Amino acid sequence: MFDIGFWELVLISVVGLVVLGPERLPHAIRSVSRFIGAAKTMASSVKDELSHELKVQELQENLRKAEQMGMEDLDPKLKASVEELKRAAQEVQRPYANEQSADKKAESTEADNSPASDTREPSADKKAE
């Protein structure tokens, strides 16, 4: 990406030493190296996400082709893609199914407890008037 040679690094080091001084230069180098590391990590993360999304898109296209062909006489490669997509869909739905069932249980217990308190409060307000 960048072609920085030895003499360019020496020049940058000398300018950094003159501008920052010997006390602040090590701290500045550490800060710059942390920033570069974070940028590399973020770039790697974005690259992984894009490749994952491209793979999902390819699987969806293969599934559409399979549906158009009526799921008969499919290539083995296409069948494998369809099976992989089905497994991925099941894995995605499992955590949400567990969360939804837990949410429904919590809502049902709240619903059982809240109507009794709601009916008492209006009558208490009427008595106070």
Summarize the structure.
This protein is mostly helical. The protein is 90% helix and 0% strand.
Shape descriptor reads: elongated
What's the number of extended β-strand segments? 0
Provide the structure class.
Answer: mainly alpha
User: Whole-Å distance between the termini?
Assistant: 78 Å
Sequence stretches where pLDDT stays below 50 over 5 or more residues: 115-121
* Average pLDDT score: 77
Evaluate the radius of gyration. Answer: 31 Å
User: With helices defined by DSSP (H or I, 4 residues minimum), what is the helix count?
Assistant: 2
Biggest sheet statistics = none
Estimate percent helicity. Answer: over 70%
Strand content: under 5%
Pfam family, one: TatA_B_E
Subcellular location: Cell membrane; Membrane
Keywords: Cell membrane, Membrane, Protein transport, Translocation, Transmembrane, Transmembrane helix, Transport
Transmembrane segments: 6-25
